[in-house]
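thoughts on these tokens:
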Amino acid sequence: MLGLFPMYHKCGHSFCHLCIESHLNVNEKCPLCRSYTGSPIRNRQLESLTMSYVASRNLSNAYYERMKFNQKKVLLQKRALALIYTGLKDKPGQSTELCNLVKNVDDEELKSEIRSQVRQQVGVGLEHVGDLENDTVTIRLKNSTR
């Protein structure tokens, strides 16, 4: 599998942009060596090698389609996280039900991503009371007063 938009870290490990963004949403350490990563930097050398390989194998269309999908997925993750944390930051120290975060969202794909990100963020930046598979689960920012 070819990495899309390869990114590297201070530790020297490289990952595709979607993979590392998803990982860094829940853990700020490198998935391989567990060192703190800092902000990922685009790996232009690996990207150039990847593009040469794609061109030599006539994989441009498939690569482009996957690139569009991954860009959309990263944007969806960022929008979902922004809605979650903005919704909770507006109510410091208070809890809210997941259904309150998604009730004004018309985009079903975004609603689904919000639910997914809430499950991933529990223990990282969020705390919950109730069943995470249910929209009535109560969530709050981690370390908020109850």
Remarks:
- The CA atoms of residues 84 and 125 lie 10 Å apart.
- Residues 74-146 form a domain with the Arc Repressor Mutant, subunit A fold (CATH 1.10.10).
